[in-house]
């Protein structure tokens, strides 16, 4: 396992975990845009759970690589959906945020 893979995997897991916690605690800077984008409130716990599972999977992937790959693919799909949701809401200034969260996950997948 390379040092770069270890760093980007932990960074991606930390960022996804932070994002999940932000949804679970209804951080204003997260839930207000979700409401503006038209994401139903009933989906929020599921979205947070998906990000938390992805974060745990990235860490587990340090020991069982296939789990990390599966978690990485899941998170890339999740954040791709987030990019599409933000673009559909015409909130182009916010497109950088899901891309920023996706970047270390993509890097971890590339380095796997």
TrEMBL record:
It is found in: Membrane. The chain crosses the membrane at residues 51-80, 92-111. The keyword Transmembrane helix applies. It is a multi-pass membrane protein. Keywords: Membrane, Transmembrane, Transmembrane helix. Signal peptide: none annotated. This is DoxX family protein. It comes from Amycolatopsis heterodermiae.
């Amino acid at each position: 396992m390379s040092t770069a893979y270890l760093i980007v995997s932990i960074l991606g897991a930390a960022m996804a975990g932070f994002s999940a916690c932000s949804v679970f605690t209804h951080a204003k800077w997260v839930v207000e845009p979700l409401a503006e984008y038209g994401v139903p409130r009933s989906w929020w716990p599921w979205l947070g759970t998906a990000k938390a599972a992805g974060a745990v999977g990235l860490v587990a992937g340090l020991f069982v690589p296939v789990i990390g790959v599966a978690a990485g693919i899941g998170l890339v799909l999740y954040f791709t959906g987030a990019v599409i949701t933000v673009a559909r809401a015409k909130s182009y200034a916010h497109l950088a945020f899901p891309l920023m969260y996706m970047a270390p996950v993509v890097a971890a997948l590339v380095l796997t």
